[in-house]
Every structure is written in structure tokens, then in C-alpha cells.
């Protein structure tokens, strides 16, 4: 088969796939009848015929919005038609802006994310009639002139909005004209304000698809690789070949996969005769959920699956194409020797796509669920860091047999004040008294940071309140160091041993003496009161003027503490420091 025949044959074979995505990326209607027609094309050509998953199609549709945002509502309506027809409740790996727009319009949270605060009205609602951006979008020269003649008009203003491709500096008015193909507004800015034609102007002109603007921009800027990116996104194959032939700019096959432009991949394939470049086509053919396309490239060389199968397999998993993964595995592709820079393949199946079936398929073919990445972390480590967001993933990993040491993660959860993590781990066989390398239990760590709710949870679930760290300190020692009266009372009433000694033979009371202030007096007084209550000695004796009492009769006060603890069967308190120095205010 010669080159012309192979291109035409493949273009014809995958015509419905190519034409469907061309229609989506070049969408230019807000009419409900027109959108209904496009929906039927998608349903027939992609979902029914090619067995594309509806949730993947929804993601593809919503991902287009930043590159054709004047038809934002049309994309949202198409996505809604699919969610209604196929009862789609979740779309994995959906960008936050897409999820926010869909939620704002229909009240449906497709990704489960609640990070909506960052999308304020200023950078989202730019389409209202009273904005200059609306005039540019509609190429309404009369309204645009009115805006430019106002006293407050700033010709150098820039728009920062998540509805456009990401930019740290926002976009100028002339760049927006190029994005929307607004030729009349473009000419006015050039003639009246001499607005500069930037690289972004030329790049956006391939999205706006206005030949007049594109031609003017080419006079001042030379096309670059970013121009090819936006040309691939525009799905205008004549623009692609123009950049290839006139400026020798290569087609980035990674972007062909990312923006569903199979036709550009076929053009690249048509232009090359080098075997290693054919392998490159094979690698990125896996981005499209078309097993027969992968098989076509495999048929071109007996070693292609050995040389490039791993990379193709990675792409198929990244793009959540289970049928392609099955195809590649059946032809002998493997993932055992990943390159140093590569993330373990299960990361994409589980963390990125939350696809249990894909994960089970890979594990059944030898994928190691406990494999560590270049930072020494397992997939479980990564997921557990953001437990609230990834709880489903954490539970999925455990169900798939991931190994994890709950005691290690318990220490981590205690240090980060994460009660949800701790409650989750408590449902497994954990040792609440497990220690880190410093001999600290989770209770020690929680108490050092004064995480009150977590401290109370540990104690109420059986953590040893008198467990010691490497310095022989209990949490009562720590509380004494921190002069925390509230927690001192709590610990004593929950069985903390006031006579426990650290490795220097000091009790918690000794620790308190290093802080010569009213906290010490409160602590001592509190102990007397609590101990008296425990042995039913009646009313508290020191409700009024307790500090005066301690100052006047310190010996009596210390005697009371010792006597009361002795009555309770405790070891006599040791007071090494002089009494008067200990209680000096």
C-alpha cells in the first residue's frame, strides 16, 4: 500500500470519529435544534458505534470550553444531554473550571470537588452585554467604539480569566480579538491605538480562524510550536499542513492525543517513512480509544510492540482506554521496566482515573500495587496525603491488596490534626500506643500541638495516657511544660499518674516549677481539689482566696497534696525544690 492509499484508507476508515470531533471543536451554534443534531452524531458515531464511554465524551466536550468559550453554553448543554441519557453521575479527572460551570448551570457536581471559591464572578461572568469583552466576542464594532471613547478606557487593560488558556499575565484586548476572530475590533485597535501584535496574537489567530487576522499577525511574528498546538486544537487540517509545509513546524503527536485530533496524527504518519517515527505514531495511537488503529501500527513491524509497547500502554492507561489496554496486553506489551522519569502505571489507573476495572486488569498482568515512585512513595502514600479528597481511592487501594502500615499513618495523621484520617485508621487493627523513632506515641504528638479533639479521641479509645517518650515523659509532663491548665485537669480526671517520673526522676509537678506564675498555683490547687473529690472529702476547701492560702501556709498545702495522693494508694510526691521557691508568684 503506497503512502497516498494508506492515508486515504485510514481517513476513510475512521471518518466518523474524525468528523465527530471536528464538529465538536469547531462548534459554532447556540441553536437547540443544531445542538440536538450534534448530540445525535456523537451518540451514533462515538458512543453506540465505537463504544466510547459517555463519561469520557463528557470530559472531552467540557475540556474544549477554554479554546472556544463563546459557545460555553452549547458545550454545557451537550454534556447535559449525555448525562441525562446515560445517567452519568461522575466524570473523573474533570478540570475544576469545567466542573464549576456545569454545577453553576445545572446544580450537578460531576467531579465531587467543592473547590468553587476560587471562581469569582469577575473572571467567569465576562459575557454580559455591558462589557467590552462581549463586544469583542461578537465583533460588535459600534459598541466597541463606545467603550474605547469613554474617559476611563484603558487600552493596555488585560483580562485574567480561567475561561481562557492558562496565563500568568492575562490577555490584551488585541489578543482577545485574535482569539475570537473579531476582525473589525482588531483593525480599530491597530489603527487607533497601534496595539502591539504579540506572539500570543499569532497563536490565538489559529483558534479564531480568521484569515485576515492571521495574515496580519504573520507580518510581525514568526509561527512557533505553540501555533501548531492551537492549530491542532482548532481541528483545521489545512492550517496544520500550512505550518508543516511553509514553516517546517512538526506536529506534536502528544497534543493530537490530548485534543482528539486523529486526522493530524494521520497526516504526520503520511509524511514519514522512517520506522522509528512510525513507532511514534503507534505510541500515540493508544490515546484514541480505537484498538484497531493500534493493531494497524503493530502490523507494520514485528518489533514495534517490543520497542514501543510500554509507552503505548502508558498512554492507553492515562487516557482511560481499557479496550486499548486489553488489546496491547494481548499483543505482548508490558510495563515491567519503566523509565526513571515515569510514574508507576497504576498511578494513572487509580489516582488519575479512579478506574477499579483498569487497576484490576493491570494487577492481573503483574502490576505492583506497592511499587514506589522516584520519591520513594507508593500510590497509597500519595492518596492518603489528601484523604478527604481521595477516600474512595484509599478504600479502593486497600480492596485491591495495597500494603500499608496503619500505625505509621496514625502518627502522620496525629501530627497533621486530621481526625477523619484517625477515625478511618481506627477501623483497622492499629496500635494506639505505637511510637515513632523519638519514642512518641500519637497521643504525645497530638498533645504537643494541643490538638484537643484528637487527644480526647485517643484517650477515649484506650490510648495509654501514661505511656512515656524517649525522655520518659508522659503527656502530663508535656502539659506541665506548656502550663495548660485545661488539659492538666482533663488528664488528671482521666487517670494520668501525677507521680510518674521522667528519665531525670522528675514528676509533672517538678516540670511546672520552671514556670513561676499563676499557672503553677492553679495546677497545684486543681490537684488538691480533684484528689479531695475522688476520696469524697466533701466540699472543696480552697474556693476563695486560694493564692493567699498557699502563700501563707505552703507547707500545709504540700502536705495536703501528699496526704491525699497517699490515701488514694499513690506513691508519695517528691518535691526536690524548695517549697517557697516553687510557689513564688
From TrEMBL:
Q: Which Pfam families match?
A: Ank_2, DUF3447
**Where, in residue numbers, are the ANK repeats?**
308-340, 341-374, 438-470, 471-503
Q: Record keywords: Repeat included?
A: no
What InterPro entries does its record include?
Ankyrin_rpt (IPR002110), Ankyrin_rpt-contain_sf (IPR036770), DUF3447 (IPR020683)
Can you give the residue ranges of the DUF3447 domain?
Answer: 193-268
Keywords attached to this entry: ANK repeat
Task: Output the PANTHER family linked to this UniProt entry.
Answer: ANKYRIN REPEAT AND SOCS BOX CONTAINING 4, LD18443P
Q: What is the name attached to this protein's record? A: DUF3447 domain-containing protein
Q: Which organism is it from?
A: Trichomonas vaginalis (strain ATCC PRA-98 / G3)
Taxonomic lineage: Eukaryota, Metamonada, Parabasalia, Trichomonadida, Trichomonadidae
Amino acid at each position: 500500500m503506497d503512502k497516498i492509499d494508506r492515508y486515504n484508507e485510514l481517513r476513510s476508515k475512521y471518518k466518523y470519529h474524525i468528523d465527530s470531533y471536528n464538529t465538536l471543536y469547531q462548534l459554532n451554534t447556540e441553536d437547540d435544534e443544531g445542538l440536538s443534531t450534534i448530540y445525535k452524531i456523537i451518540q451514533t458515531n462515538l458512543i453506540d458505534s465505537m463504544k466510547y464511554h459517555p463519561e469520557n465524551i463528557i470530559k472531552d466536550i467540557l475540556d474544549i470550553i477554554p479554546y472556544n468559550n463563546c459557545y460555553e453554553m452549547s458545550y454545557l448543554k451537550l454534556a447535559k444531554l449525555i448525562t441525562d441519557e446515560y445517567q452519568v453521575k461522575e466524570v473523573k479527572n474533570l478540570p475544576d473550571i469545567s466542573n464549576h460551570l456545569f454545577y453553576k448551570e445545572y446544580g450537578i457536581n460531576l467531579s465531587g470537588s467543592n473547590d468553587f471559591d476560587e471562581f469569582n464572578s469577575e473572571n467567569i461572568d465576562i459575557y454580559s452585554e455591558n462589557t467590552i469583552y462581549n463586544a469583542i466576542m461578537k465583533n460588535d464594532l459600534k459598541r466597541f467604539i463606545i467603550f474605547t471613547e469613554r474617559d476611563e478606557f484603558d487600552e493596555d487593560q488585560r483580562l485574567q480569566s480561567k475561561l481562557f488558556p492558562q496565563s500568568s499575565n492575562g490577555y490584551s484586548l488585541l489578543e482577545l480579538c485574535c482569539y475570537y476572530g473579531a476582525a473589525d475590533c482588531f483593525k480599530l485597535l491597530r489603527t487607533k491605538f497601534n496595539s502591539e501584535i504579540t506572539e500570543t496574537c499569532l497563536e490565538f489567530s489559529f483558534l479564531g480562524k480568521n484569515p485576515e487576522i492571521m495574515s496580519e499577525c504573520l507580518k510581525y511574528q514568526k509561527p512557533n510550536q505553540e501555533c501548531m498546538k492551537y492549530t491542532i486544537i482548532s481541528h483545521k487540517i489545512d492550517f496544520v499542513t500550512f505550518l508543516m509545509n511553509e514553516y517546517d513546524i512538526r506536529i506534536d503527536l502528544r497534543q493530537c492525543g490530548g485534543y482528539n485530533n486523529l486526522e493530524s496524527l494521520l497526516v504526520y504518519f503520511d509524511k514519514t517513512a522512517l520506522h522509528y517515527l512510525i513507532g511514534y505514531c503507534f505510541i500515540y495511537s493508544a490515546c484514541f480509544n480505537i484498538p484497531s488503529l493500534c493493531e494497524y501500527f503493530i502490523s507494520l513491524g514485528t518489533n514495534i510492540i517490543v520497542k514501543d509497547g510500554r509507552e503505548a500502554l502508558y498512554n492507553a492507561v492515562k487516557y482511560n482506554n481499557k479496550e486499548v489496554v486489553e488489546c496491547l496486553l494481548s499483543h505482548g506489551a508490558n510495563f515491567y521496566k519503566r523509565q526513571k522519569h515515569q510514574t508507576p502505571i497504576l498511578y494513572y489507573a487509580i489516582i488519575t482515573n479512579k478506574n477499579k476495572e483498569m487497576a484490576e486488569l493491570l494487577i492481573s498482568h503483574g502490576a505492583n500495587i506497592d511499587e514506589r515512585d522516584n520519591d520513594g512513595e507508593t500510590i497509597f502514600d500519595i492518596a492518603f496525603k489528601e484523604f478527604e479528597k481521595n477516600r474512595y481511592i484509599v478504600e479502593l487501594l486497600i480492596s485491591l491488596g495495597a500494603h500499608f502500615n496503619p500505625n505509621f499513618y496514625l502518627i502522620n495523621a496525629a501530627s497533621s490534626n486530621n481526625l477523619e484520617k484517625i477515625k478511618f485508621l481506627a477501623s483497622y487493627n492499629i496500635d494506639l500506643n505505637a511510637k515513632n523513632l523519638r519514642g512518641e506515641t500519637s497521643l504525645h504528638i497530638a498533645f504537643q500541638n494541643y490538638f484537643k479533639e484528637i487527644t480526647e479521641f485517643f484517650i477515649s479509645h484506650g490510648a495509654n495516657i501514661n505511656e512515656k517518650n524517649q525522655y520518659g515523659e508522659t503527656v502530663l509532663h508535656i502539659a506541665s511544660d506548656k502550663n495548660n491548665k485545661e488539659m492538666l485537669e482533663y488528664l488528671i480526671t482521666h487517670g494520668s499518674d501525677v507521680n510518674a517520673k521522667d528519665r531525670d526522676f522528675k514528676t509533672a509537678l517538678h516540670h511546672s516549677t520552671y514556670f513561676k506564675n499563676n499557672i503553677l498555683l492553679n495546677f497545684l490547687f486543681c490537684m488538691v481539689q480533684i484528689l479531695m473529690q475522688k476520696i469524697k472529702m466533701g466540699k472543696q476547701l480552697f474556693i476563695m482566696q486560694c493564692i493567699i492560702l498557699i502563700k501563707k501556709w505552703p507547707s500545709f498545702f504540700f502536705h495536703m497534696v501528699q496526704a491525699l495522693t497517699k490515701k488514694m494508694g499513690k506513691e508519695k510526691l517528691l518535691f526536690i525544690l524548695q517549697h517557697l521557691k516553687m510557689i513564688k508568684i
